[in-house]
Write a structure and sequence with these properties.
The structure is a single chain. By secondary structure, the protein is of the alpha/beta class. 26% of the residues lie in helices and 26% in strands. The strands form four sheets. Strands 3, 5, 6, 9, 10, 17 and 18 form a seven-stranded mixed beta sheet that branches. It has a six-stranded parallel beta sheet with strand order 13-12-11-14-15-16. Helix 7 links the parallel strand 15 and strand 16. Helix 3 crosses helix 4 and helix 3 packs across helix 8.
Amino acid sequence: MFAAYAARIDRDHPLNGLELGERPAPEPRPGWTTVTVKAASLNHHDLWSLMGVGLAEDKLPMILGCDAAGIDADGNEVVLHSVIGQSGYGVGPDEPRSILTERYQGTFAEQVSVPSWNVLPKPKELSFEQAACLPTAWLTAYRMLFTNAGVRPGDSVLVQGAGGGVATAAIVLGKAAGLRMYATSRDGAKRERAVELGAEGAYEPGARLPRRVDAVIETVGAATWSHSVKSLRPGGTLVISGATSGDRPSHAELTRIFFLELKIVGSTMGSKDELEDLLSFCAATGVRPVIDQVLPLDRAREGFERMAGGELFGKIVLTNA
């Protein structure tokens, strides 16, 4: 079958390790099901895999891709939950949690095999392309907002780095849930787009906000950390799920954190139940993932290049004919 896969690790030039071509189709295994992939979406996780982050060389070649929607062996339209091992379903009970492509072949292919437990019905209201955007970035944003930030309608939230998959999802989901959303970006066009999507205001990184917020959604890391901490009201919550600019800020702001009794919460992906809730939320409210570009799988390299260049706003989706 045709696939986009990591053939080698290159930490300095990750796209040098990306290959497109034939790979073996999944073989049947007990407790697992094979899904015909209709659409799959890119994440920065795929780029990091090409750099060897979370992907060991002895696992190569590895088909990339965490997210997908498609058709299962019984003809049902489904969405995949891409976290394997946290429940023991389909794998040994002691297997540590991993994301597709860290241990198991991914979704940038004509077919993918996952534990049957990891398959959820696709709501009829969502297209395959829309549904394929949800299991990683949008699920991460959903968990950050509604599980870990603990915000309620009317609360205010700052989202750092508008344009990225998680940040964009947080703006859209927060607006739909009745939150007052603010965003930052170095790019003026991305700031404008954030406002169009529901942000009450969008600012340059480090800018003073109209008010201190109840929560901050942080995926940028070192470059925005100080601003994130300073933007919180006393007792506010900073939820972090990534550090694309590095994980060692020059100022940790420890004094401010303890004096104002701020909460720092780490967040990673989300549960199958949360993905089910997210799918239902999108179906019921009309919220749809923001898609930057849809490409056929054989043009996957273009999508990787666009993501690596930071040009995108929203998700890049790869489709099979």
